[in-house]
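FW: tagging you since you asked about this chain on Friday. Here's the raw sequence from the shared folder, copied in full. Didn't touch anything.
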Amino acid sequence: MSFKDPQNPLKWIGSGQQLTDEYLQVKINGDVALLKIILKLMKEKEDVAPNSVFNHQFIKEKTAGIDELLKDLDNYTIDELLPQTGLSLEKIKKTTELIINNEKIIICWAMGLTQHKNAVDNIREVVNILLLKGSIGKKGAGTCPVRGHSNVQGDRTMGIWERPKASFLDSLEKEFKFKAPRKFGFDVVEAIEAMHKKEAKVFFGMGGNFISATPDTTFTAAALQKCKLTVQVSTKLNRSHLITGKRALILPCLGRTEKDFQNNKKQFVSVENSMGVVHQSKGTLNPSSKELLSEPAIVAGIANATLKNTTVNWSELISNYDLIRDKIEATIPGFKDYNNRVRIKGGFYLPNNARDNNFTPTKTGKANFSINKPSEIVLEKNQFMMMTIRTHDQYNTTIYGLNDRYRGILNERRVVLMNKDDMMSLKLNKMDLVDLTSHFNNEKREAKGFLVVPYDIPKKCTATYFPEANVLVPLKSKADISNTPASKTVIITIKKR
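HL: got it, structure written out here
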């Protein structure tokens, strides 16, 4: 609701800077139910006062499927949806009024919406609200997925995808004079399963901490150990280096904060931020060692050593990263005049059809409303919904300290945050030691020795830290369509030690 600067004691006095008009503490996995209630309230107001809520011009010109959406909403009652949210109807009505009375609406989300079995439905329901208001394709409005750190952002842009489009492969073949494989590869979950079955025999990691970032820790570790070779290109040691195949290599590399000189000329790399802006990133620190190679140099060295019939001059590409960007410009749409535009302060926007109010890439040529179902999960007695979260002193899998200033938890990470009423029902006290068991498809996974911490969290909901509780996240529990691990939809039981 408000914010106080923790690094400025003068700001600690008073209520702080207000951030939020309304805060809806929805139950874990109750998002579709909440969004559907908002849609129904919008429809009710529109039925009573036509043209007071919906942007009919935008809907008519730019969208498809409005009739099906409105008809489907009639299949649900607010009374049956409300218990899934854990909220009062009055609170939801206040939020709905904010949406009704504004045209420029931006809806942001992060992993709290995407790490569920029904994650795609969550996002589609968000889009339904924006389309009804005409709040896509205009300045100050639209969807805003809050994504991770910038060196991850460009993966899909650069074609790093297990299901690349034919047009991208055609461009690669034309520019690099080789025959690109057309068979789809594995996503992360499928790759772990393939390694476990010994169908994938080499693991090559460009940065990251795979064992700590992925679900089902024990299963993932066994999968890596079945590989013939595991290779880690890394800026620093991490837990993944301890779980290896029959042979293992650690290839230390320059970090993005370190100076990168090739042919005595300082290089820079380009990154993409959360808003789809490409800009340059140039290291300012002296390298930790003169022996360190950059990531591009490592890749080029491997290519030179293994691709005997290559027509690519890999050494030349590494001598000047502008040459790599020339190849990107030649193969990927949106990068015309790349080397000049990336040097402009602030960078440049990538093409974005939704931002440009152009929906022709869809099958209907318009923005499509969708039909989505609320969660069908029903917890049994003494079961709880668990989500994994991160602490203040944590950057992805890198843990810098044991304190969580966000939540007032100090010097401990093996904790389970619980509602006080739930603690009372299980006869648990603060700091009791418990074991957690997740339940999925008649399988049980255990995480032992967690401390109970009372917290302001909805009833029947719990939170644990990532990666300590990753062992409880089943590999096969993943989002429909997107295949994202469902780390926010883990059904657990709790037992006092």
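FW: The longest helix spans residues 31-48.
HL: agreed, and The longest strand covers residues 443-454.
FW: great, closing this out.
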